[in-house]
Each structure stands twice: as C-alpha cells, then as structure tokens.
Write a structure and sequence with these properties.
single chain; about 170 residues; mainly alpha; two-stranded antiparallel sheet; globular
C-alpha cells in the first residue's frame, strides 16, 4: 500500500493546477464580487467537462456505467435545481456581469467534488483489482457533479434572461 507522499508524487500536474484553480475561485467566492458572466462559467464548465470525459473514457467498458452516469446526472440536476438559490444575485446585463454575495458554498462544494474524484481515482490506481468496483462510484460522482452544474447554469440563465435588458440609447443626430 503506497503512502500519501507516493500518491501525491504520481499525481499528474494538471490535477494540482485544477485544485489551485478551484481553491482560487472558492476563496474569491467567500466575499461579494461582480465577475463577468464568462468568468462565472469556468468552474461549471470544468466540472461538466470532467464529468462527461470520465463517462466517455469508461462507457465503452460497460453500458451499465452510462446508466449510472445518467441516473447520477438526473439526481445531481434535481439537487442543483432545489438547492441553487440566487437570492442576492443581481444581473448587470449592460456590463455582462453578475453581482454575487459572498458564500462558503462554492468552496466547500467544489473541493468536496474534487476530493471525491481524486480519492476514487487514487484508489483505482492503488488497487487495480478493485477498479470494476470503484468505477460506478467514480462515474456516479462525475454524473452527479455534471447534473448539479447543468441545473445551476439553467437557473442562472433563467435569472439572466429575466433581468432587464440594457436600455437602448437613442441615436444622436
């Protein structure tokens, strides 16, 4: 059984970069901020892409994993839909910004998903004989997080769409 140092040593560099990005955005979310809309979409895009990539990398092994991912994504969507509260969020369509109150939720949520994926991937690498047993859990976390962030994006898009459109300026003569 490898020790923690060996696990960390064999972790690809992109994983540390992703962790740093998640911590950076999570710490920023602790205080009120007004990011541009595109910047706000980075973390959901990362988790949705990671979730879909995890599925595509393994779905050829077993169609059951596809069903696992889809069921987890539906559950994640339901959780995201029910728990995403955009109270205090203000849309500035003219500046294409979103005013967000500070919250610990993004930091805790993102690091929890990251930790689950990291631990499951590390466990699969340490004990290859258990990969078949761990794969549904790994795919489940991927589907759950992708579904959650899709629901979050839909909620945000609906709020953005409902926000007043910027006033058109009258042409000057």
């Amino acid at each position: 059984m490898p020790n923690i140092a060996a696990i960390v040593e064999h972790t690809p560099l992109w994983v540390f970069a992703l962790l740093a990005l998640l911590v950076f955005f999570g710490v920023q979310a602790l205080r009120p901020r007004k990011p541009r809309m595109l910047r706000l979409l980075i973390v959901p895009a990362v988790f949705i892409t990671w979730g879909v990539t995890s599925l595509l990398a393994r779905s050829a092994i077993s169609p059951i994993l596809l069903l696992d991912w889809l069921a987890a994504a539906v559950l994640g969507f339901a959780i995201g839909w029910l728990t995403t509260h955009l109270d205090g969020v203000r849309i500035d369509r003219a500046a294409r910004c979103v005013e967000l109150p500070g919250s610990v939720v993004p930091l805790v949520r993102n690091l929890s998903i990251f930790a689950a994926k990291y631990c499951l991937t590390a466990a699969s690498a340490i004990a290859p004989a258990r990969q078949a047993m761990l794969a549904p859990w790994n795919i489940g976390v991927s589907g759950l997080s992708a579904g959650y962030f899709i629901a979050w994006l839909v909620r945000l898009a609906l709020k953005y769409r409902a926000a007043a459109a910027p006033e058109a300026t009258a042409p000057t003569l």
